[in-house]
Design goal:
Blueprint (H helix, E strand, L loop, with lengths): L2 H24 L7 H24 L4 H30 L5 H23 L6 H31 L4 H26 L6 H22 L17
Helix pairs in contact: 1-2, 1-7, 2-3, 3-4, 3-5, 3-6, 4-5, 5-6, 6-7
Length: 231
């Protein structure tokens, strides 16, 4: 990826993440969506950590490799927690919150154990391989859980505009990221496919920021209209 393009995408991502946090504070919604804000704050911190190791040790160094994979794993767990918080908001009125949290922790632990079992006999470095495997498995779990949550939104006729659009944007993000990851594996010789992942990572904070600014917490909609087919 050209250096100028990489720098532009990096700056766009940081600006979008910071914009969501600022908009949450401005709209008095920081603590209402605390785990979403926490995810972006960790993303900003991870970017700073990666930049430090990149400039100090170089991209091919073990130090940068460890920093990248472990911050990536941390961010994936943080996004999983953010998704769990959206589950709690959808099922909060049904008083299923404690069951949602218990199942989320159980699934997270199960995914971590599965990831460890996959890499424990690997001849590669176990530490970085485990972090990579955990991130990929959690992304797959997150994709499935997001679509399950979207089905629950339609079934329960959830009408809170912010919540519905946050979930929809998250589902599109997981889908786009999975598609870009598959393209990298299938067509890695084309440099353009390596741009897709960083570009996709900018879309989530950007879409959530637009939602935060455009809609108040009191705004309502009918999610069934999003899937209605004209006759």
């Amino acid at each position: 990826m050209p250096g100028s393009l990489a720098s532009f995408i990096w700056c766009l991502g940081i600006t979008s993440e910071l914009a969501f946090v600022v908009s949450s504070i401005a709209r008095n919604s920081f603590f209402r969506y605390f785990y979403l804000n926490l995810y972006f704050l960790l993303a900003l911190s991870s970017g700073a950590v990666r930049y430090f190791f990149l400039t100090r040790f170089g991209q091919s160094s073990d130090e940068y490799r460890y920093a990248y994979f472990y911050t990536d794993a941390l961010l994936t767990v943080a996004l999983y927690v953010a998704l769990t918080s959206l589950y709690s908001r959808v099922f909060g009125e049904l008083r299923f919150t404690k069951y949602v949290r218990f199942c989320a922790v159980l699934l997270l632990v199960g995914t971590a154990l599965f990831s460890y079992a996959v890499v424990v006999q690997s001849e590669q470095r176990l530490a970085t391989t485990f972090a990579y495997e955990l991130s990929q498995n959690l992304y797959f779990v997150g994709l499935v859980l997001t679509y399950i949550l979207w089905g629950a939104v339609l079934k329960l006729r959830e009408t809170r505009t912010r919540l519905v659009q946050f979930i929809l944007a998250l589902g599109l993000y997981f889908s786009a990221y999975a598609a870009s990851y598959a393209l990298v594996n299938l067509a890695s010789k084309y440099s353009v496919v390596h741009v897709l992942g960083p570009v996709v990572s900018c879309l989530l904070p950007l879409s959530w920021t637009i939602t935060m600014w455009r809609h108040s917490e009191e705004a309502r909609l009918v999610p069934a209209h999003l899937v209605a087919v004209p006759r």
